[in-house]
Design goal:
497 residues; two-stranded parallel sheet; 11 strands; 9% strand; RNA-binding
RNA sequence: GGCGCGUUCGUCUAGCGGUCCAGGACACCGGCCUCUCACGUCGGUAACACGGGUUCGAGUCCCGUACGCGCUACCA
């Protein structure tokens, strides 16, 4: 059994796509599950699409996700370099080898000439540079040897094209889709080396996957159609192709492809579209584990009824044969649900640490660690997003300056001020200020005044927190402490009447 | 247009010929819990694209149609 080696091979286009992150995740999980190696290779062979900082961004997102490569531009490895732009001589070497062996040829046609040929062909829509047309073009198959030598010597721009044979059937056994076959008549003489000397994806990919000893290719379905070219390349080189698994695509809620252009700024789901940029979700405050968990579920399921998984758990149970074939639609509601689930299951200490840095970044001064911890515990079960903590728990750190108008209208009645003062006069006497005695005191006060407990509870909550929602009142009061509670009640009654 | 892939509740999915008048999750609706909001819990609405085969029996296998998506670049 040979070593499992997989790769994530993104091209740095400026941002990491949700689908790209899932591809990285699946590769990572497959490697971990099979004690294999996870390779990161940067496919930066398109100079026209070069984006400043794209590689750094990619690296930082992977790092954030915890999908650390075993080999890659940062960690190195014996199969490097891992940036294709640093491997140009390798591709050239292999392309030349194909030309020498007659599997590929030089083509000198300019884009304009090809366009002209297309227009003059019987059906411009189906025109291809292939076995049926290459004899009409300017290439080393139609030109004399001397002419070819002369053109090369004169540095006339050229590309190297793969000479795809006629009447062949290429069959792959995809790990997810089963057998898929293609007739060679539908594949064109793919450019291998562009006129700028850079390789195309197809050449670089095949060469690198072989040289880096990749055992399984796990990538998006958009690549399925180009597999025959790749298979033929492996054949020409005399190499064994890796096993392949083509993943279903991820779409917008309206069924369209997730595209960066669909999104204006950060607003999610403007019109049946969803932001494809992973960075947006990070910035929006989603939990790392929740995002990974969610995208893992887009195209894969565990087989039992469990859906909430940590990365570590996924590493144990992920398998390619539970990946399905049909495309998935990205659903923010489910992401949010999983986000809440992950916050809920987090170790309180860890959540506290996360929330503390969040709060401190927002300018909060946290003096009492233990107090902060108690507040966090109160809110953990009711946080859907960690950012909500800032608005929901603020009254624990500063006195409310405003009182929610809606709650005031609904809960603060004629007698509320009086009842709150009654309650206040009782709790002032308390020597033990815990939730049990507070509850007992409140209930007794209510009974003494002949009103339902709710008539005191709600106004008190509003007075102390400024809000109508939140954790249990007695827990809030206990945690705030006697002094603050007394001050706030007095102040609120003065303001609310 | 050509080629390829896909099609189970609104969404993610389970299902690998009978145990499926189709199960789970999100969302939605209702109940319980309860001082509120959540959490939790109980229940409800809701799907095998269509048409032919094969078979004693099809969501499950085959063919066709429709629809969707991908590829069809000197982009990946």
């Amino acid at each position: 059994m040979t070593m499992v080696r997989v790769r994530f091979a993104p091209s740095p286009t400026g941002f990491v796509h949700v689908g790209g992150l899932r591809t990285a995740l699946y590769n990572y999980l497959f490697a971990r599950r099979n004690n294999g190696v996870f390779v990161l290779r940067i496919e930066d062979t398109d100079r026209s699409r070069y984006v400043e900082g794209a590689v750094e961004n990619l690296l930082s997102v992977l790092d954030w996700a915890g999908l650390t490569p075993d080999e890659g531009p940062q960690q190195g490895g014996k199969y490097g370099p891992y940036l294709q732009s640093e491997r140009l001589d390798i591709y050239k070497h292999y392309a030349d080898r194909l030309v020498q062996q007659g599997f590929a040829y030089y083509a000198f046609d300019t884009p304009e000439e090809i366009e002209t040929a297309r227009q003059k062909s019987p059906d411009p829509r189906t025109f291809k540079y292939d076995a049926s047309t290459r004899s009409l073009m300017r290439n080393s198959l139609t030109l004399s040897e001397e002419e070819v030598r002369r053109l090369l010597a004169q540095k006339v721009p050229y590309v190297i094209r793969l000479k795809v044979p006629e009447n062949r059937i290429f069959v792959i056994t995809d790990l997810i889709r089963g057998e898929v076959s293609f007739h060679s008549s539908q594949v064109d003489d793919q450019v291998l080396i562009k006129s700028d000397g850079y390789p195309t994806y197809h050449l670089a990919n095949v060469v690198d996957d072989h040289l880096m000893e990749i055992s399984h290719i796990i990538r998006g379905e958009e690549w399925l159609s180009s597999v025959p070219k790749h298979l033929y390349l492996y054949e020409c080189f005399g190499w064994e192709p890796p096993l392949m698994a083509h993943l279903p695509l991820i779409f917008n809620p309206d069924g369209s492809k997730m595209s960066k252009r669909d999104i204006q700024s950060l607003s999610l789901m403007p019109s049946g579209k969803v932001d494809p940029d992973v960075q947006s979700y990070i910035q929006a405050g989603y939990e790392r584990e929740a995002i990974l968990n969610y995208i893992a579920l887009l195209g894969w399921s565990s087989g039992d009824d469990r859906e909430v998984f940590t990365l570590k758990e996924l590493e144990q149970i992920f398998s390619l044969d539970r990946v399905n074939k049909s495309p998935a639609i990205f659903d923010l509601a489910k992401l949010k649900h999983l986000n809440q689930q992950h916050i809920n299951r987090m170790e309180p200490e860890r959540l506290a640490a996360e929330l503390r840095s969040l709060a401190e970044n927002a300018g909060w001064a946290i003096e009492d660690e233990n107090y902060f911890m108690q507040v966090v515990k109160l809110f953990q079960p009711r946080l859907h997003m960690r950012n909500d903590f800032l608005t929901l728990s603020r009254y624990f750190f500063e006195e409310p300056t405003e009182y929610d108008a809606e709650t005031k209208a609904k809960r603060w009645k004629e007698d509320s001020g009086k009842l709150v003062l009654e309650f206040l006069s009782e709790i002032i006497k308390l020597t033990v200020f815990d939730k049990e005695s507070l509850e007992k005191t409140l209930l007794q006060t209510a009974e003494r005044c002949g009103v339902p407990a709710a008539k005191i509870i709600h106004p008190t909550r509003l007075a102390v927190t400024g809000m109508g929602i939140g954790p249990g009142l007695y827990e809030i009061l206990e945690l705030l402490g006697k002094e603050k509670v007394i001050n706030r009640l007095k102040r609120a009654v003065g303001i609310l009447g």
